Amino acid sequence: MRGDDMGLAQVADTPQFYADLVMRHSSDAVIISDPERKALWVNPAFTSQTGYGVDDIAGKEPGSVLQGRDTDADTARLIEAACAQRREIRVDILNYTKSGAAFWVDLRVTPVYDSTGRHTHFISTMRDITERKMLEDQNEEMRHAEALRQSERQLLALTSEWLYSAKSFDELLMVIKRAMHTLIPEADGALYVYDASRTMLELVASWGTLPSFAGHILPDDCWALRRGRAYAFGLKPIEFVCDHVKKPGTPYFCLPIIAHGETIGLMHIVFDGFEEGGLMRHMRNDVLRNRWDISLICAEQISLAVANVRLRQELQEKSLRDALTGLWNRRWFMENALREVAMAERDGHHLALVSLDVDHFKQFNDTYGHETGDMVLKEVAQVMMAQSDKAVAPCRLGGEEFILLCLDHDEDAAIALAERVRVMISEIPLTVSGQVLSGVTVSAGIGLRGRDGTSLEEIMKASDMALYRAKAEGRNRVVSQSGPQERVEQT
């Protein structure tokens, strides 16, 4: 081996040679600074990573060159404090390349001391972790999105539980208003239900901050009702505004409410402030799509809840209605009369009971058969229903025995009502197999809260006693007892 080659081999074997190889060929960026944190040298990896050469950064504090508008200020202060105390620090920090591109680095700043303990340099190493940070951010977004979905699922499950627990339509409306405002807080909403004639839909509930919704809408005013399926305005390239919408540029949903296969109403959800160019346009579509999915689920649950309430009301109605006449039955009368008597006693209001009995009813059954007897009972019931309102409840206690629960009726009002019913029943035309029957008549007795007692039992007993007196005195009359004497009304 020649002498000069042997000299080069000896140089290559020195620690300085290996250190130089590491500094020049490492994939991590390296900056060497003086004790005042002024840059002295950078390795090629630093230039490749940042675009800055040694001439660009020499004499400058590295952070002043690399940090930018979105760099965390607290992290920068931690680095400054550690360097001032001459201790090592390792942090993740956002830097910027010479071209302005942001990138994340795992930065380690280490103070260097000579053999005498004098601080001579800082060595900063930077490893690009942008890809790792992106994955972490994506994972965080996924975790956040999953947390939101879990929260939505829990709210939907809770909403479903409350919806199916509603015992009445009014209670159901209360749950719908609270649930929809919680599930879609950025939207206002309204619930419409078809009227009895099905010619229009009437507003039954609303929620949110809009001052008002239309009190009623026509079926042809809504694309959802015309097309027979839910409609979202504000998400499609081709779409048309429903005629019932007041602000044409506002995104909204229209969702039919269906019970037992029949469309019975419409849920209208409005996103005021989500117009094109509005304050929330940067997240408008994502929010609307998410809320569309939630709205579809809510519409389905509300539809099922409405069907459930209707079925429950139908079953309850059947259990409280007389099957033959459609009047309230004895069970309903006893439950409601007990409550109304107690409330009238508490508030000092009038209350009357009018007991009615079909005269010679057994004779009808024996002469013309039970079908004719049933027809008579139905006709009597129709007359009683015609006189009923919020203050008058007609009931059938059994057989040919009927009773009117009369709220806020004093003696004169009760007698007048009983007389109207008696006269109307006596004028009922009855024909069986072409044969005109003799007139149907009823006898009636009146009991009054206060005069005849304070309990339901006392008032019923008084009305029954008056009824017996009416029958004893010839039937087809109204009798009202008044103290030790009896008052008899007869035509």
From TrEMBL:
Domain PAC: 87-141
GGDEF domain mapped to chain residues: 349-483
Designated name of the protein: Sensor domain-containing diguanylate cyclase
InterPro entries: DGC-Regulatory_Protein, GAF-like_dom_sf, GGDEF_dom, Nucleotide_cyclase, PAC, PAS, PAS-assoc_C, PAS-like_dom_sf
Highest taxon, organism lineage: Bacteria
GO molecular function: catalytic activity
Annotated NCBIfam families: GGDEF, sensory_box
Gene3D superfamilies listed in its UniProt record: 3.30.450.40, 3.30.70.270, PAS domain
Organism: Roseinatronobacter bogoriensis subsp. barguzinensis
PROSITE patterns (alphabetical): GGDEF, PAC
Pfam families associated with the record: GGDEF, PAS_9
